[in-house]
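Appendix B, example 12.
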Amino acid sequence: MADASDNEKDPAVLRCRVEQAKAEVQIAEAGLEKASAELDHAQEEWDRANQIRNAMPGAISGTDYDQAKCDLAVAKADVKKAQGEINLAKAKLSESEVLLGRAH
């Protein structure tokens, strides 16, 4: 009967873990692309809100202005989070590759 430690040494299982880790890196990279696109949009909205506020005081509500500012801050944080997720996924991939290398 095989136990959990046998699975940790099984090259087939380790290869699967490497493939899964590679997929997680791809997913994290796609998340960064999405977050970056959302940041670009939020920056455009923030710039537009500033232009309207400066050109025509009172033409944009304080709530809309604050919302654009908040959306930009959240988008910046989402990009940082996505970058961290990529780093974490790459570390997991590296660890999985090392374990696979040791199994051979």
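The radius of gyration is 22 Å. The longest helix spans residues 11-55.
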